[in-house]
Write a structure and sequence with these properties.
Number of strands: 20
Shape: globular
Bound molecules: flavin-adenine dinucleotide
Largest sheet: 10 strands, antiparallel
Structural class: alpha+beta
Number of helices: 11
Radius of gyration: 21 Å
């Protein structure tokens, strides 16, 4: 699932060696990593490197952030500037949502959504169209209203939604291809409270006629399943509420029963690391993620895969994957189903498509998972799946390219700001250019 589904989350656990990604399934191909402390230093690094790739908080499961030459980390660029007049916050691109959320909340603001864990960087999240859930919630990149990018020649490119129209829409889900993002401006909402409750055992049959009702039962709704018994094992409903009020939660939700104790998405795991449930209200940033901010995920002994399909075909897509349940379940920790609103960002997995995301948190069994992915992709092929840019997939490049109607324009944009392909790595060469 999206957040680390495993309860091996604790303080003080060892982080993976710095040259691996968070999950430890990718070892980066270079040990040359620059960590500039200012924008001028970023420009120096960009100017002096012939090949370069920015790296965020290393949470992607594939080689999208890899380089066999040089990487640059913006972890020291994490300043926060709130503009009360514009209702925006401009952040250093290396900041993590977990650092940002309490600060803006303290000033009376919120973001429209969060991913399932707060430890990812803003620049890295928007690069891959990272999303939460909610019928009407766009992915995290849809909150972006401005970008500052150091391009291949060391110059600063500033883009804003208000002034740069199409070019801006092409640049937000950037895949690390345009240069090094130094600052990102995000739209703010007034802060809000959320309460969440969990229901157990929802038959998939109800999704046929009530998909929108079920996923619309809260501001953000997630279904979890192990794919057995034609049912979601859990339904997590997160509702926005008026501060000071208590929401009523029916005991029955389409036949699913209100949980009477706090649940972990993987049945039987300790729920200690999970955000409060049972309808207890709390600030947006302590309810929208499934896992608490102050629990640091350890190195992940898990793999993740996710496909976005058009919501019009959500039920058929779920049934198509379900056919593989007996191959999937033995290697799976859990699947999460979420919804994402359509957007206009060229390389977004939800570009012009209200989407259902079918996510798999796998056991760390890559040889077996590697065999299953093409089968799942085959089942989903009729629906035009768009694999999450930061997770594991085996979809042939031509099929991926066919899913992005603005790809040619994106490449033109990239070619303009990076004519020598300084920021192009093997992942991009394979998936976008082969
Ligand atoms: C436990 C876990 C839970 C997750 N939950 C979710 C979830 O709920 N929803 C979801 O959609 N995804 C989820 N993901 C996937 C994750 O959000 C994405 O892989 C995201 O891109 C990771 O961001 P990062 O900061 O770690 O970036 P990295 O993985 O380090 O890099 C990702 C991309 O961003 C680029 N990049 C990073 N910083 C910059 C910069 N300053 N300038 C230019 N390019 C840059 C890199 O070049 C690369 O292309 C999860 C991953 C994990 C490990």
């Amino acid at each position: 699932m999206a957040g680390s589904m495993l309860s091996r989350i604790s303080h003080g656990q060892q982080q993976p060696a710095a040259r691996e990604n968070w999950a430890g399934n990718i070892t980066y191909s270079t040990d040359r990593v620059y960590s500039p402390a200012s924008i001028d230093e970023v420009r120096d690094v960009v100017t002096k490197c012939e090949k370069l790739r920015a790296v965020g908080s290393r949470h992607s499961f594939n080689t999208i952030a890899d380089s066999d030459a040089n990487q640059v980390s913006l972890q020291h660029l994490n300043q926060i500037d709130i503009d009360d007049h514009a209702r925006t916050v401009t952040v250093g691109a290396g900041i993590k949502y977990g650092q940002l959320a309490p600060v803006i909340d303290g000033r009376g603001y919120a973001l429209h959504n969060l991913a399932s864990l707060p430890h990812i960087s803003v620049a890295g999240a928007i690069a891959t169209a990272t999303h939460g859930s909610g019928l009407h919630n766009g992915n995290l990149a849809t909150a972006v209203s401005g970008l500052e990018i150091v391009t291949a020649d060391g110059k600063m490119l500033t883009l804003s939604r208000a002034k740069d129209g199409d070019q801006f829409l092409g640049a937000v889900v950037h895949l690390g291809a345009l240069g090094v993002l130094t600052r990102v401006t995000l739209n703010l909402l007034p802060t809000y409270q959320v309460a969440q409750s969990v229901y157990r055992d929802l038959s998939f049959d109800h999704l046929k006629d009530h998909f929108e009702d079920i996923f619309g039962a809260g501001y953000s709704v997630s279904l979890f399943t192990d794919w057995q018994n034609h049912r979601a094992t859990q339904v997590w409903i997160k509702r926005r509420i008026t501060a000071g009020t208590q929401d009523n939660w029916a005991l029955d939700f389409y036949g699913a029963k209100l949980a009477t104790e706090k649940m972990h998405p993987i049945e039987g795991h300790s729920a200690e690391a999970c955000t409060d449930q049972q309808g207890i209200p709390g600030p947006w940033y302590e309810r929208l993620p499934h896992f608490k901010m102050n629990f640091t995920p350890s190195s992940g002994r898990e793999l993740q895969t996710e496909y976005l399909v058009p919501r019009d075909h959500a039920y058929e897509a779920i049934l198509a994957v379900e056919k593989l349940r007996d191959q999937i379940t033995p290697h799976l920790f859990v699947t999460e189903l979420r919804t994402i609103a359509a957007d206009e960002l060229w390389m977004s997995t939800a570009y012009r498509r209200p989407s259902l995301a079918i996510h798999f948190t796998w056991k760390p069994e890559w040889p077996e998972v590697r065999q299953i992915l093409p089968q799942i992709e085959g089942q989903l092929a009729p629906f035009g799946p768009r694999p999450h840019w930061g997770k594991l997939f085996t979809v042939p490049p031509a099929q991926i390219q066919g899913q992005y109607g603005r790809l040619a324009e994106f490449k033109t944009l990239v070619g303009r700001v990076d004519p020598g392909a300084k920021f192009r790595n093997r992942f991009l060469s394979t998936n976008l250019y082969s």
